[in-house]
């Protein structure tokens, strides 16, 4: 059915090996930073080697420094040597890993080479070795915050993804933003369209089939318990959560055609926002939760529209592209994927665009390949998406204000959906 095809136009993508970072667009000259490894006793040689690449990658994605290639060996309290001057760094980031069989510890300090002063120092610990990437993510995010750099708190956040395992089955996985860490939290049956329930990322909503009927559940990561929210014939998907976490935007099709509904978790009641004989899907809160941006085929092809949270008149937001079927919002900004190759046998091109609901502002974010499934970071300063360029796919990260993009090549696999 046409409805199902539109609802399930998501992505064929993948799962990570080590994150290899490609800088697509370089900005201004940045202060140079040298990384030093002071680790002397760590149980896992594999994690030790991968950690050095991860911390260099996190610094690069943070976009505040030019990372000097190569990791130097030293001891944690050693003075800065004369040989450092030849590489002319503004800062030295020195770290030491310990443990690695049970609890994993990280010590890190940032040294200003002008006067050898310590600008930042902290200790971190992680009880689960498999979560070692978050030690790096947390440290680099804290350094950025301490130095009052562009915020990258999202780096320490998790991604929730649904992965097809076989026909009719999909599992839900929690991962870091590079997909290096992956933890299967739900398997068995068709578990699709996960959506974080709150900013703390302690729970998520997802859709499954219960006795053949699409049903929305909330899964609590702390208690490992699930609770039923609602069900609907045809389709039920949670596409967005209000700022206070009390309301959901649902795509439901109780009478075969999909529309956008506002679901109040306190009263457990749903209010219809759109009523259209075709397809309305993927509602997102915008403008301080006063309006809804969504995808509709009411102009013939999937496109981006907006309406009041109370329904009523519908405004078309995008006037280009053959297929604008994926969208994400943050405050008054909208990022969407647009198909731009119209010829039947031409190579497909989907580019990402950023617009504002408050002005005529529009900015193209990508230029080549198939770029889909954009999702804003919690601070709105970054966008994660899936990039397919010929035979290789990747997770892409766009630093919006820094005008930089990065990609993390992935191994073959198949994702059903993703949320950041």
UniProtKB/TrEMBL annotation:
Protein name per UniProt: Tol-Pal system protein TolB
Highest taxon above the source species: Bacteria
Gene of this entry: tolB
Family: Belongs to the TolB family.
UniProt organism field: Campylobacter magnus
Pfam families hit by this protein: PD40
PANTHER family: PROTEIN TOLB (PTHR36842:SF1), PROTEIN TOLB HOMOLOG (PTHR36842)
Keyword presence, Signal: yes
Residues of the signal peptide: 1-19
